[in-house]
Write a structure and sequence with these properties.
about 60% helix; mainly alpha; about 270 residues; 11 helices; 2 domains; four-stranded mixed sheet
Length: about 270
C-alpha cells in the first residue's frame, strides 16, 4: 500500500462501523499509524480547519500541511485514487460521483441503525437525521426481505402453506406499520431509530437464510430442515431485537409486540390457507 502522508482521517468513535474502517485505513497502510483520530477527540489545532457538523455526517480527511479538507465520498476517492491512480478519471466522472454520493449518504445517514453504538456521550455532536434517507432505508430493506422470504417460502411447502407472490411483502410491510403505531404511541421521539433498527434485524435475518436457499439449489432439503433453520434465524433475530431495544432504552413492550405480530400472522396463514 502507498501511504498517503500528512493526512488525518476523522471518524465517529461512537459508531462501530466508522471505527472499523478508520482502523482498517491505518492497518493496511493507506494512512500512517497516526493518521486517524475520532472527531470527539479532534486536535485543537485541527478544529479551525474542519466543519465539525459536516465531519460528523461525512468522514473528513484533513491535509495537515495545507489545511485542505475533503468530506465523505471525496475523502474515499482521494484515498483510493492515491492507491490506484488509474481510477482517478472515474472518480471525477460526474454521473459516477453523483451516484456514489447518494450511496455514501444512504449508508452514512443510516449507519447508527445498521450497527448501533453501544453508548453515546451526552452533549456530543450527533449525526444529522435525514428522514428521506431513513424512509429510503426502510423501503430498501422491506423490498429485499420480502424478495428473499418469498423465495424461502417455497422451501417450507408441506409444513407452512404457500401464499401468493405478495404475501411476504405484505407481512414485512405490515410489521413496519404495526410496530410504527406502537412506537409512535410509546416513544415517538425514537420512532425512526427503532424502525431502522427493526428493519436491520429483518434484513440480517433474511441474509442468513440465503445459504440455505443456495444449498437447496444443489441438495434436496426436507421442509422440516428448512423450517428448523428458519426458526433458528428467528431466534437470533429475537435476541438481537432484545439487545437493540435495550440500547435504545425502550424496555420490553416492543419486543413483546414484535413477537405477538409474528404469531398472529402465523395463525392467520394457517387459518386462511
Amino acid at each position: 500500500m502507498k501511504t498517503l502522508q500528512n493526512h488525518l482521517v476523522l471518524y465517529d468513535a461512537e459508531c462501530p462501523m466508522c471505527t472499523s474502517y478508520a482502523k482498517t485505513l491505518t492497518q493496511t497502510g493507506m494512512l500512517d499509524s497516526n493518521g486517524r483520530v475520532s472527531y470527539q477527540d479532534m486536535p485543537q489545532d485541527t478544529c479551525v480547519l474542519v466543519d465539525r457538523q459536516r465531519a460528523v455526517n461525512e468522514i473528513a480527511l484533513v491535509n495537515t500541511q495545507t489545511g485542505e479538507v475533503s468530506y465523505g465520498i471525496d475523502s474515499l476517492f482521494k484515498l483510493f485514487g492515491h492507491q490506484i491512480p488509474m481510477f482517478k478519471p472515474l472518480f471525477t466522472f460526474g454521473p459516477f460521483v453523483w451516484l456514489m454520493r447518494k450511496v455514501y449518504a444512504f449508508i452514512s445517514y443510516n449507519r447508527r441503525v445498521i450497527i448501533p453504538p453501544a453508548h453515546t456521550v451526552a452533549g456530543s455532536l450527533q449525526p444529522t437525521f435525514r428522514l428521506s434517507y431513513r424512509l429510503l432505508y426502510l423501503i430498501f430493506t422491506w423490498f429485499i426481505v420480502g424478495f428473499i422470504l418469498t423465495g424461502y417460502a417455497h422451501l417450507l411447502t408441506g409444513l407452512v402453506p404457500l401464499g401468493n407472490a405478495y404475501r411476504e411483502y405484505l407481512i414485512c410491510g405490515g410489521q413496519v406499520l404495526f410496530q410504527g403505531i406502537i412506537i409512535s404511541w410509546y416513544a415517538p421521539a425514537k420512532r425512526w431509530d427503532y424502525l431502522g433498527n427493526m428493519m436491520t434485524i429483518s434484513f440480517a435475518g433474511a441474509l442468513l437464510l440465503l445459504p440455505v436457499m443456495l444449498l437447496a439449489k444443489f441438495v434436496a432439503l426436507n421442509a422440516i430442515i428448512c423450517t428448523i433453520c428458519f426458526m433458528g434465524v428467528a431466534g437470533l433475530m429475537f435476541l438481537e431485537h432484545i439487545r437493540r431495544t435495550k440500547l435504545l432504552q425502550l424496555g420490553w413492550l416492543l419486543t413483546v409486540t414484535w413477537v405477538v405480530y409474528r404469531l398472529l400472522v402465523l395463525l392467520l396463514i394457517f387459518k386462511f390457507n
